[in-house]
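Researcher:
Attend to token order:
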Amino acid sequence: MRWFRVYTAVLHDPKVQRLHPSTFKHWINILCIANGNQERGILPPTEEVAFALRIKPAEAEKVLTQLEGAGLLDRDEGGRLFPHNWTERQRGSDVVSTRVQRHREKKKREIKEMGENVTLHPRFSNALDLEVDIDNKKPLPAKNPPVGFALFRNWWMYAFSITEDDRYIFEQGKDGKCLSSILKVTDWKEAVCKACHYLVDADRFPKGRPTISGLKSSINKYPGHINGRADHFREIGIIPPDEVLLENWKPWNVK
């Protein structure tokens, strides 16, 4: 499942708002067609556009001409149509497979650089779990954190890097206390579900980059399940495939 960006500026764009309602509908569907095409952003031949829109080729040609005349479609040097400003508004990093692959390669490099400071030991299952302080590249202090602490922390840092395209600096003091508080009242898997909603919430409070303390302060706002949004979260890459258990899914522990 692919997705693309639609900006709120559309609400005030006269080129869009002056479209006839039926043409506006076709424009939205044409954006979907362009996004789903093998060469992302480029529209396929008119016959394929017509089939996707469930209209006749002649009508599709008319619609494409109208949208091109309105400045909502442009042509490349080869004469192929594409949505106006597509490359500027649709980031290459939005392609999930590319972003996830880039992240995994980055994690491989980090783990290789850590070298002898990385300690692996069994935890919660027969699988090996990465147990290091990513900030200082030192083994974590011997404590008795709540069940699921390390699993959630490692998942959070991985999910943050996916949604924010940046590294999360986990502060063992502040973040550790907040996470411990969360896990005292919430199962770690339920906390992951809540965190999924929190990470992708454009209206989360406080504004800005998501944090463990921010999650704690708004933990009751989000549901403890992913029903209805599972496909979206999987497409982003922050939860495992349907057949894989969350506790067995450790994409950050790549080799």
About this structure: Residues 116-135 have pLDDT under 50 and may be disordered. Residues 96-114 form the longest helix (19 residues). The radius of gyration is 23 Å. The chain has eleven helices and four strands.
